[in-house]
Design brief:
142 residues; alpha+beta; five-stranded antiparallel beta sheet; 46% helix; globular
């Protein structure tokens, strides 16, 4: 398995922010975690709210913890809100069921980390996460 490096994590962050600026999205916070859930890179744009780090981290960490992106977690929360509430409590609040948390896959499709983005609507956060992952030469995990 490939390890997610600081250099690649930084590329993900910078490309995600560039995508947001090219689309005039709201100011974002971007967190990239390795497969063990450790923070590798983070940036918060000027004007992004102070809770945005916690939300971005929770989107990435929750995706790693559950083994699927936060878009799927959002869908599951709609069907099983009590279960997702319990998971959020169990994880100490490190889960955010809103699009913008995407697992990062290496060329062999192994999960090597996750990116979480917060600041705009979840769909736009996810667009930027996917752009960042692609710019670093990776793909989203299925």
């Amino acid at each position: 398995m490939v390890l997610l490096t600081l250099d690649k994590a930084s590329k993900i962050v910078d490309a995600a922010l560039a995508e947001a600026r090219s689309r005039s999205f709201a100011p974002l916070a971007v967190a990239v975690l390795d497969a063990g859930g450790h923070l590798l890179a983070f940036k918060r744009e000027d004007g992004a709210g102070i809770l945005r780090y916690d939300i971005a981290f929770a989107k990435a960490w929750g995706s790693l913890g559950m083994g699927f992106g936060s878009r799927e977690m959002t869908a599951r929360a709609a069907k099983h809100p009590v279960f997702i509430d319990a998971l959020t409590s169990i994880s100490g609040g490190r889960m955010a069921p809103s699009p913008g948390g995407v697992l990062i896959a290496d060329p062999a499709h192994g999960v090597i980390g996750a990116v979480g983005i917060s600041g705009d609507v979840g769909d736009n956060d996810e667009i930027c996460a996917l752009a960042g992952i692609s710019a670093a030469g990776y793909g989203p995990a299925a």
